[in-house]
Amino acid sequence: MISKEVLKNIRRIHIRTNHIVNDIFAGEYESAFRGRGMEFEEVREYAPGDDVRDIDWNVTARFGHPFVKVYREERELTIMLLVDVSSSCFFGTQKQLKQELAAEIASVLAFAATKSNDKVGLIIFSDHIEKFIPPKKGKNHVWAVIKSVLEHQPVSHKTDIAGALSYLNRVARRKAVAFLISDFIATDYDKPLRIASKKHDLIPIFITDPRELDLPKVGMVELQDAESGETMLIDSSDADFRTGYGLLARKRLKDRFDLFRASGIDAIDIRTDVPYIDPIMKFFRMREKRL
User: Fold this and answer.
1) Lowest mean pLDDT segment, chosen from 35-44, 169-178, 184-193, 232-241
2) What pLDDT score was predicted for residue 29?
3) Which domains does the chain have, with CATH numbers?
4) Residue 89, CB half-sphere, CA atoms under 13 Å: how many?
5) CA distance 131 to 148
6) CA pair distance 17, 13, nearest whole angstrom
7) Average pLDDT rounded to a whole number, residues 197-214
8) Residue 16 has pLDDT above 90, yes or no
């Protein structure tokens, strides 16, 4: 039974995301991802103007004259949404919690995929896989995906991005476009990230709240780690402490984006205090130009 609050959120997201997908994204998603996959179809004799890189040397050797491989565009994509529901995502000092923002972004991507007749799958994770919905097509399926994201109650508080990526590689045997939506407050996922990015078109969507980068000057404050439960009493009126906090937070942020770049991955930087439409549109257009 869906609670009234979840039903209210689903209706709100339906109205908002339907507008975004129809009026704002209009073709941007399809332009960014269509034709990215190529599937082998047949071999035929070489003709002047063919790319020599497409020569099938085994068939050429067998028949004594050149043959080339012919490919066709894969018109159907598989979109996998990996959504982090660890406790650090249930934080936000702006209009939405990071988790609520993640759910709305996942909904927009799912609707956009459905309008392009693509399959959509879902992996909800904390420090283990909390829910998996295999990729399928259709509006009813997308609603099931969105409902699952909105009403899911996490079992665990902690995060294991490495485990989520390893699971993705096991359940998605063919190449997928995988959106990893998280605040990336985790460790030891460097190697799994690189492995997953080689098999799939992996796109991290990195959500940050401004209070994770800068502390307000409000005197003595007790901070609690949402995942471990550990607490710390700090004096936010201490300018040196606030400066050190900000420098350390920005270094961690930079280290994560350096990791993405070193792995050849394009990431989308989302803030809870800035509309998410512009960063996603900028990303889509960048991918379109690259194609």
Assistant:
1) 35-44
2) 76
3) 4-32+76-290 (3.40.50.410), 38-73 (no CATH)
4) 28
5) 8
6) 6
7) 93
8) no
Indicate if the pLDDT at residue 37 is higher than 80: no
In the numeric block, the tokens 């941007």 are attached to 28
- Split at pLDDT 50, 70, 90, the class of 20 is confident
Give dist(CA 44, CA 63) in Å, integer: 12
**Lateral strand order in the sheet of 177-182:** 129-136, 119-125, 78-84, 177-182, 201-208, 268-271
pTM of the model: 0.80
Instruction: Provide the total of helices (H) and of strands (E) in the chain, helices listed first.
Output: 9, 10
Burial of residue 72 (CB within 10 Å: 0-12, 13-18, 19+) is exposed
**DSSP conformation letters of 12-64:** HHHHHHHHIIIIIITTHHHHHHTT--EEEEEEEE--TT--GGGB-HHHHHHHS
SS3 assignment, position 70: strand
